[in-house]
């Protein structure tokens, strides 16, 4: 199978990933045109990467613009028909990228083609599934062939540049979670198909933020997730119940954040604090909308 090197640009948005992880990811795709957007502005990493690999465009952002803005920034810089968005914790071969492209071309109305994910032990892991308002469980699909799904993880997706522009790129109000659900929801509403390709395989380390500072990692994970869940359901007018439940828990969260701080349990303190901040951030957002 011929490798479609000239048809695809691979975009990677980084934020505090370890150098070895980035290098491992790039080794498999080094023959492709690659655009990197680093939201951590890591000059040292850029120097190490460019010493080993030829990178088409390498953008260092002075501050963290979050995943959606970094993604959109990278897409704007692409000049090929197809784009493969790849997270640094996903390893995919040229052969599997070729299979993705072939599948994208063969299926009618295909907007997104994505591989089947495996872990380090070669066990199937989650990728495609249902929209969260229908089923919030992330059950692993036991596939025997390609399948059309409602949602796919943003981690490894192949699409056409013109399609994503016509759809409207990623919603930059999201921070990093639920943005893939919202994208897929728009794809479906426009009549597009999302295909999880069985024969295209990738290794994916799920949901492991690479932020070194454990307190910052705890805050980012829970703040981003809580805000994005509220915002996703706001977009489909189903956020009221979730917001109501969170508001009810808020006094307890504030109390636990303070108590755990005094008990020298900083991780627990930051966890409850992040939920509280997300609540107030979302309320501020709602007030601007009203």
Give a short synopsis of this structure:
The chain is of the alpha/beta class and 290 residues long.
Describe what you observe in this structure.
The protein has 290 residues and is of the alpha/beta class. The protein has two domains: 8-204, Spore Coat Polysaccharide Biosynthesis Protein SpsA, Chain A (Alpha-Beta Complex), CATH 3.90.550.10; 214-289. The chain has nine helices and nine strands. It has helices spanning 19-27, 43-52, 66-77, 94-106, 161-167, 179-189, 214-235, 240-262, 266-289, and strands spanning 8-14, 33-38, 57-60, 82-86, 90-91, 110-118, 147-148, 156-160, 193-204. It has a five-stranded mixed beta sheet, sandwiched between helices. Helix 7 runs parallel beside helix 9 (266-289).
